[in-house]
Design goal:
Bound molecules: beta-D-ribofuranose, calcium ion
Radius of gyration: 18 Å
Helix content: 25-40%
Shape: globular
Order of helices and strands: EHEHEHHEHEHHEHEHHEEHEEEHEH
Strand order of the largest sheet: 3-2-1-4-5-6-13-10
Number of helices: 13
Strand content: 15-25%
């Protein structure tokens, strides 16, 4: 099977790092670009972290620096979860690579437009870069296969009681993307909060996952979205699992809208009753369930791939 071409729009981020490393190792995916955005930490840092990952994995994937601020709101980063660098917990060697000499929005456009095949966008940070690209270069829509996004939730948040971090940080951008007409798959907290990784898996990865496995385990020790003893939520890796192992998930088409104002701004709202009555049409494929055991096994296997 030919590898599926993808672009990560990302804010590494410890769970972003896990997602990116898995995708690099997985032969079914072909990572064309790491397009960075400010969210978990400032964009200068997320861009540096993307460069660190490309260098560490010794792959020729270009890295581009994108937007540092959401469209309308002020960025609320979360160094308390990922550390001040955004990837605290591993001593990466000095980076010799440089980001592309163009903005991430332009870099994404160029790759999408010059690709023979349609590209899948995997959005694991805020939607700022993607929203700007859709406004500036609407011609890209025809050449995007799907947008797989880690963000939102069917209910409940992790930034406040209703909003998930990636959508909360730039709801206006998410609104543009969700209304774009491009096929969207939403992997929210209703699934990622239940795809947990424990110390047992981390130890297996450390023992059998080579240097990338060791690196990820060190980062996971410092990651504060859960703990290895109680289970860590490696949210962004679940988006990669969905692309290569859709059999582990259940999905349902639903109408999803983004609240833009008021105390619930940044909340993804799915109006089930309006869908049943036919008042609202489904616009998003929402991932509703994960096979937890199958996912955990997949996560370990991906890190051990090619190492034994
Ligand atoms: C999302 O927020 C970020 O902190 C993580 O990297 C993930 O993309 C989870 O809500
Ligand atoms: Ca992220």
């Amino acid at each position: 099977m030919k590898a599926r071409p993808i672009i990560f729009d990302t804010d590494p981020g410890i769970d972003d790092a896990a997602a990116i490393v898995i995708a690099i190792k997985d032969p079914d995916l072909d990572v064309k670009l790491l397009s960075t955005v400010g969210a978990n930490v400032e964009v200068e840092k997320t861009c540096m972290n993307a460069l660190r990952l490309a260098e560490f994995m010794d792959v020729d994937i270009p890295v581009a620096k994108g937007c540092g601020e959401p469209l309308m709101r002020k960025l609320r980063p979360c160094p308390e979860v990922h550390g001040v660098t955004g990837m605290d917990g591993y001593d990466f060697p000095p980076v010799t690579r440089k980001p592309l000499d163009k903005h991430a929005v332009v870099a994404m456009r160029d790759i999408i437009m010059s690709s023979e095949e349609k590209i899948t966008l995997v959005v694991i940070g805020t939607h700022t870069n993607v929203a700007i690209m859709l406004k500036m270069y609407p011609e890209v829509k025809e050449k995007i296969e799907e947008i797989v996004t880690m963000g939102g939730a069917l209910a409940g948040g992790n930034t406040n009681s209703t909003a998930e971090f990636n959508i909360y940080n730039d709801p206006h951008a998410a609104d543009i993307v969700f209304k774009s007409g491009i096929p969207i798959t939403m992997l929210g907290l209703n699934v990622t909060n239940y795809a947990l990784i424990y110390r047992k898996e981390a130890e297996a990865i450390k023992a059998r996952g080579g240097k990338a496995g060791e690196m990820i385990c060190s980062l996971l020790e410092h990651y504060r979205s859960g703990s290895l003893d109680a289970g860590v939520r490696v949210h962004d890796a679940v988006a990669v699992a969905y692309m290569v192992r859709p059999d582990l998930f259940k999905t349902e088409m639903m109408p999803v809208e983004i609240a833009l104002d008021g105390p619930a701004a940044g909340t993804t709202v799915s109006d089930f009753r309006a869908m049943e009555s036919g008042e609202k049409k489904p616009n998003v494929k929402v991932v509703t369930e994960v096979d937890q055991e199958g996912y955990t096994q997949w996560f370990v296997d991906e890190f051990c791939r090619g190492e034994e």
